[in-house]
């Protein structure tokens, strides 16, 4: 339905469940994809699976210099950078009264500050091209809060506020900046939960099931398309009705 | 008229769609030539590309007029 032929997309956290699904969906729509992440092996495996039009661009998002260099590397590998999907994120959960400065700072650094750096690097070329799509993956938790995740929720809410501000500034250049906020998605991380934990989670979800990574990817694909040109500064909540925002 | 001035003027005229004779030394990009703040960022990017130089953000903020741009670029070449 959405055609991204000739477009180039950089996806961070492509070694994870959601990032991999996003990269696959954009690739299936015709885009050339740059797969970024810290773990090279799963990136290589995904690139092999996708075949042509897939480039592996490893990057440690807590390394400021490496992050700044990443958009340039993406342009060198793919010729341009039309679509940026900031998907990578980390958690360092702890109840707030026990949360260390280090737990706070590391989550803000990777989830918020590296997203800022990547946006800055990518927008340069997008301004010149008068076309660009930035999709930041946030979380339902950024809107609702979650015990044990003050740092993570703050980082994701921060990304939403930043995205809206950037969206204002670059809208006249044909660049849109949006967020996709997943609820509970079945990934390697949620596989580790026991049945009681899963039951408690499912009780909060009107849809009665966890989401699939492909359902997040579909939202990202839409926001990356030319059809979504008039959607900017928005957050698309994909959470089975868990929080109707 | 120097070659640098001509090249800078050409970029300004093309980017902001203004008449060439409006682009005088004291012309402010924002106040006289109708640029918005994002246009000034794009102009700096275009200067960097045209002349193969790097204009750091703190220097870019001091480039307010056509004359400022020419002076900075001449100094950087």
TrEMBL record, chain A:
Residues holding NADP(+): 38, 87, 152-156, 185
What GO biological process term is on the record, naming one? fatty acid biosynthetic process
Question: Which Pfam families is this protein grouped with?
Answer: adh_short_C2 (PF13561)
Give the Gene3D superfamilies listed for this entry: NAD(P)-binding Rossmann-like Domain
* Protein's UniProt keywords contain Cell cycle: no
Which InterPro entries is this protein grouped with?
A: 3oxo_ACP_reduc, KR_dom, NAD(P)-bd_dom_sf, Sc_DH/Rdtase_CS, SDR, SDR_fam
Please give one Gene Ontology molecular function term for this protein.
3-oxoacyl-[acyl-carrier-protein] reductase (NADPH) activity
UniProt catalytic activity? a (3R)-hydroxyacyl-[ACP] + NADP(+) = a 3-oxoacyl-[ACP] + NADPH + H(+)
Going by the UniProt record, its keywords in alphabetical order are:
Fatty acid biosynthesis, Fatty acid metabolism, Lipid biosynthesis, Lipid metabolism, NADP, Oxidoreductase
Provide the E.C. number(s) assigned to this enzyme. 1.1.1.100
Q: In which pathway does it act?
A: Lipid metabolism; fatty acid biosynthesis
Q: Pinpoint the Ketoreductase domain residues.
A: 7-188
Q: What class of enzyme is it?
A: oxidoreductase
Where are the active-site residues found? 152 (proton acceptor)
Stated family: Belongs to the short-chain dehydrogenases/reductases (SDR) family.
Instruction: Briefly state the protein's biological role.
Output: Catalyzes the NADPH-dependent reduction of beta-ketoacyl-ACP substrates to beta-hydroxyacyl-ACP products, the first reductive step in the elongation cycle of fatty acid biosynthesis.
Q: How does this protein assemble?
A: Homotetramer.
Q: What is this protein called?
A: 3-oxoacyl-[acyl-carrier-protein] reductase
Origin species: Loktanella atrilutea
TrEMBL record, chain B:
Against InterPro entries, the record matches this protein to:
ACP, ACP-like_sf, PKS_PP-bd, PP-bd_ACP, Ppantetheine_attach_site
Q: Which GO terms describe its cellular component?
A: cytosol; membrane
Name of this protein: Acyl carrier protein
Q: What is its main location?
A: cytoplasm
**Which intervals hold domain Carrier?**
2-77
Involved pathway(s): Glycolipid biosynthesis; KDO(2)-lipid A biosynthesis; Lipid metabolism; fatty acid biosynthesis
* PTM entry text: 4'-phosphopantetheine is transferred from CoA to a specific serine of apo-ACP by AcpS. This modification is essential for activity because fatty acids are bound in thioester linkage to the sulfhydryl of the prosthetic group.
- Name the domain of life: Bacteria
Show the PROSITE patterns listed in the entry: CARRIER, PHOSPHOPANTETHEINE
Which PANTHER family does the protein's record reference?
ACYL CARRIER PROTEIN (PTHR20863), CARRIER DOMAIN-CONTAINING PROTEIN (PTHR20863:SF76)
**What Gene3D superfamilies would the database entry show?**
ACP-like
HAMAP family the record matches = Acyl_carrier (MF_01217)
What is the stated purpose of this protein? Answer: Carrier of the growing fatty acid chain in fatty acid biosynthesis.
- Matches recorded under Pfam families: PP-binding
């Amino acid at each position: 339905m959405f055609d991204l032929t000739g477009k180039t997309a950089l996806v961070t956290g492509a070694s994870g469940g959601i990032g991999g699904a996003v990269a696959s969906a954009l690739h299936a729509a015709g885009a050339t994809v740059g797969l970024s992440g810290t773990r090279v092996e799963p990136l290589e495996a995904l690139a092999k699976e996708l075949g042509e039009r897939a480039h592996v661009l490893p990057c440690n998002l807590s390394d400021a210099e490496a992050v700044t260099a990443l958009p340039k590397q993406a342009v060198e590998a793919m010729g341009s950078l039309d679509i940026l999907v900031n998907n990578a994120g980390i958690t360092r959960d702890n109840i707030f009264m026990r949360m260390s400065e280090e737990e706070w700072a590391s989550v803000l650094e990777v989830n918020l500050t590296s997203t800022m750096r990547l946006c800055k690097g990518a927008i340069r070329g997008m301004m010149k091209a008068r076309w660009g799509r930035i999709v930041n993956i946030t979380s339902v938790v950024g809107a609702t809060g979650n015990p044990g995740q003050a740092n993570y929720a703050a980082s994701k809410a921060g990304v939403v506020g930043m995205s809206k501000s950037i969206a204002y500034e670059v809208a006249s250049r044909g660049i849109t900046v949006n967020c996709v906020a997943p609820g509970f998605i079945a990934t390697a991380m949620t596989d580790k939960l026991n049945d009681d934990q899963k039951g408690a989670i499912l009780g909060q979800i009107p849809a009665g099931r966890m989401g699939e990574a492909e359902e997040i990817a579909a939202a990202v694909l839409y926001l990356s398309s030319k059809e979504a040109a008039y959607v900017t500064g928005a957050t698309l909540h994909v959470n089975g009705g868990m929080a109707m925002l | 008229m120097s070659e640098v001035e001509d090249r800078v003027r050409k970029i300004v005229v093309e980017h902001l769609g203004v008449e060439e004779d409006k682009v005088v030394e004291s012309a402010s990009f924002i106040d006289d030539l109708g640029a918005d703040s994002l246009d000034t960022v794009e102009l700096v990017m275009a200067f960097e590309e045209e002349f193969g130089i790097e204009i750091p953000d703190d220097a870019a903020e001091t480039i307010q007029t056509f004359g400022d741009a020419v002076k900075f670029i001449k100094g950087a070449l």
